UniProtKB/TrEMBL annotation:
This is Acetate kinase. Keywords: ATP-binding, Cytoplasm, Kinase, Magnesium, Metal-binding, Nucleotide-binding, Transferase. Catalyzes the formation of acetyl phosphate from acetate and ATP. Can also catalyze the reverse reaction. It comes from Pseudoalteromonas arctica. ATP binds at K21, H210, L211, G212, N213, G214, D285, C286, R287, G333, I334, G335, E336, N337. The keyword Magnesium applies. It is an enzyme of class 2 (transferase). Substrate binds at R93. The record marks H182, R243 as: Transition state stabilizer. Its EC number is 2.7.2.1. GO terms for molecular function: acetate kinase activity; ATP binding; magnesium ion binding.
């Protein structure tokens, strides 16, 4: 994708249930013009933080104000700083595209219907995405609006990988299958790593580990996603900040019959109270846990060990579809910064030809990319900062320019 003249500014929106992350990027250079985060939307103290020309500012919103108020504030900022004239599109991060959306699309009524349908599979995220799209359509009437789906990159998975061993009708009648998420990130780091290693994407076999508050691993064969650890929802797979990842589904019966949990309580337990937080009983934040572990806190040590063991186990499992691995990629807040976790995981996977150069491992943080394995390593270990916003900006700009 190449964009000739500049500037081509794209407003990138990422709506969560109570937050809205925004940025205006130049799709030609990836330069960030303004960025910010509206948080605690719908609560008693919503606010908008933003950074413009290197300066950070905070705007308090009135109690209970939600997504449309955040977008209104954003419109005021755009007008105040004269940022509208170079805007060519709005790109929306949409969490669930179901089976229907295999690539980014211009949003029209049919697309809204498709996103609404897919939202039944991820109600919290889907509803927020639709709110963001509606608010942006109302505020940026003349601009093309583009949806970029977190699930799209994984639509190349085969049915052996994406089906659950459940009655087949649940798939055909209700779309119950594995979809995978973090697709934009896995896609981006795949391209960047192929470039770093100077090898053609179409001949690249990678495993990428996106480790942030949410965590997922993706098996990439000849440049395409062939399996990933998240499933119908972002709960499946790895241990995460507050999510359990894989559990025995028999737990549902135990929780309901023995402990009187209802569906909402189980959902909350698995999504909000588990993972690093659940085991450490301290925090979902990896930095806090690493500090506590260094100070000898046993539950923090256990949380880190479990996180790394389960991650290494999932990576090893992906050797089944890949057979040959060129590189293991670390990305996301933890993957890009935690030399401790990278070292522990690589050590457990040394039989795959991976090793860890401790100097390179320590140096790769705060947004630096690099190869952290030794020169002799058969399989490379790579730290590659993700940039989902830029992928969204590029896709939105490219679709807008085709109009
Ligand atoms: P993300 O969701 O990608 O923003 O990642 C958030 C996670 O990255 C949190 O668990 C943070 O504690 C973790 N993280 C950020 N910086 C560091 C760091 N320097 N060392 C370890 N973990 C970090």
């Amino acid at each position: 994708m190449s964009l000739q003249s500049s500037p081509h500014h794209v407003l990138v929106l990422n709506c969560g249930s109570s937050s809205l992350k925004f940025a205006i990027l130049d799709a030609t250079t990836s330069e960030e013009v303004i960025s910010g985060l509206a948080e605690r939307l719908g609560s008693s103290s919503p606010s908008v933080k933003y950074k413009y020309l290197g300066k950070k500012q905070l705007i308090e919103l009135a109690p209970d104000q939600a997504h449309s108020a955040a977008i209104n504030t954003l419109v005021s900022l755009i007008n105040e700083h004269h940022l509208a004239e170079n805007l060519i599109a709005v790109g929306h991060r949409v969490v669930h595209g179901g089976e229907h959306f295999t690539k980014s699309v211009l949003i029209d009524d049919d697309v809204i219907k498709g996103i609404t349908q897919a939202a039944t599979l991820a109600p919290l995220h889907g509803h927020a995405n639709l709110l963001g799209i509606a608010a942006a359509q109302a505020s940026f009437k003349g601009l093309p609006q583009v949806a970029v789906f977190d699930t799209a990159f994984h639509q190349t998975m085969g049915n052996v990988a994406y089906l659950y061993a459940l009655p087949y009708k649940l798939y055909t009648d209700y779309g119950v299958r594995r979809y995978g998420f973090h697709g934009t990130s896995h896609y981006y780091v795949t391209g960047q790593t192929a470039a770093l290693l100077n090898q053609p994407i179409k001949q690249s076999n990678f495993i990428s580990a996106h480790l942030g508050n949410g965590c997922s691993v993706c098996a990439i064969k000849n440049g395409k996603s062939v399996d990933t650890s998240m499933g119908l929802t972002p709960l499946e797979g790895l241990m995460m900040g507050t999510r359990s990842g894989d559990i025995d589904p028999g737990l549902f019966n135990f929780l309901t019959t023995q402990l009187n949990y209802d569906a909402q309580q189980i959902d909350d337990l698995l999504n909000q109270q588990s993972g690093l937080l659940g085991i450490s009983e301290l925090s979902n934040d990896c930095r806090t846990i690493e500090e506590a572990a260094v100070a000898g806190n046993e539950k923090a040590i256990l949380a880190l060990e479990m996180f790394c063991y389960r991650l290494a186990k999932q990576i090893a499992a992906f050797m089944v579809p890949l057979q040959r691995l060129d590189a293991l990629i670390f990305t996301g807040g933890i993957g890009e910064n935690s030399d401790i976790i990278r070292d522990k995981v690589i050590t457990q996977l040394s039989y795959l030809g991976l090793d860890c150069d401790s100097t390179a491992n320590l140096a790769a943080r705060f947004g630096t990319q690099g190869i952290i394995s030794s020169h002799n390593a058969k399989t490379k270990a790579v730290v590659m900062p993700t940039n989902e916003e830029w992928v969204i900006a590029l896709d939105a700009a490219s679709i807008a320019q085709e109009l």
